[in-house]
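Example: BTB domain-containing protein.
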Amino acid sequence: MGKMEELITKQTCQGANKGFPAPPPLPGPATNCRRKGSLMKNGSAIRGNNCAAKATRALWDRLFDGGYKTDVIIKTDNGGIICAHSNILGMASPVLRGMLKQAKGFGHRRPISIHIHGVPQDAVRAFIRFLYSSSYEKEEMKEFVLPLLVMSHTYVVPQLKRVCEQQLEHGLLTIENVVDAFQLSLLCDAPRLTLIAHRMIVMTCKAVRETEGWKAMKKSNPALEKELLESMMDEEHGRDIMMQKEKNRKSNEQRIYLQLCEAMEALVHIFRDGCRTIGPHDKDLKEHQTPCDYGDCCKGLELLVRHFASCKLRVPGGCIHCKRMWQLLELHSRLCTDSNSCRVPLCRNLKEKIRKQSKKDEIKWKILVKRILRTKRIGGAPIFVSSNSNSSP
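Written out as structure tokens, the predicted fold is:
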């Protein structure tokens, strides 16, 4: 036991003899110590600075509003004056620190005067308040976000610059101010804001070109207007290409679903009525039959069925033609409304197999069936519903 612990133990014993309560035990091992800078609230650890943050901001705001022992006068447009403390301004902004040093070098007596022109006085006041407490009012940020962005860049206050960019990105960027924001982002080295504003201008080109910001840019910076117009044309051309591609894709899908519809009806036709040289086992085919309504589809299915009947690799996946036949048969079984009396081979067996399929495969098939039924209502088509009831020997 160390000397300090011996001393505490001795004092504890003396205090206990005099009737004083025993002091709390010494801290336990280092593993039980809480992280430095954290406190306990309701049994859970919280950061210590969270408790003081609100009070600290209020203190800095009171110092700014009260103007206690200020030594700087900031002059704004229309004769406005804002009082501030040189130490705080110099700590928050290296540019303001340089201006203050330069003013002192010229032998200026206190208070020192500096000028911030070109922005509203209330915007300057919101800027100086941020230098004190790193906080802002929502209404002031909403009204003066662009002037604050300019001042944060001009006077090198990166924290405020990030706040302005985030506020613009998450709601304050509108059709009315997007052109101004785009031009300022180029001047203030804000590449992410430049990209977001440019995208918004291109996507809402018709509305943006009616704003006052666009008209002012057209007069002051025609080269930039030309670049934006070219971007709009490229975007519109690209959009037209994408729309055409999407139209072609949907057209191809529609064609495929119609072909599947026809294949399903032709399959029922073959095993119900018979066609050319193939048909149900209990029906004699005529030598001179009139051409059926399915044409080449029926002819292709006839060849596929004959191959399927004679192929030695009829297992699914063993032969590409047999695999296609298995898929057509399974699709039929999913669309068939009466498998018990259906004359298409394996319809009932495949119905039983479908119930044991994995959920992933089942979802894919359901999507396909839904799209086919949407293209052409096979489930309600007379040829499909009556595929077995109207058969004749």
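The radius of gyration is 41 Å.
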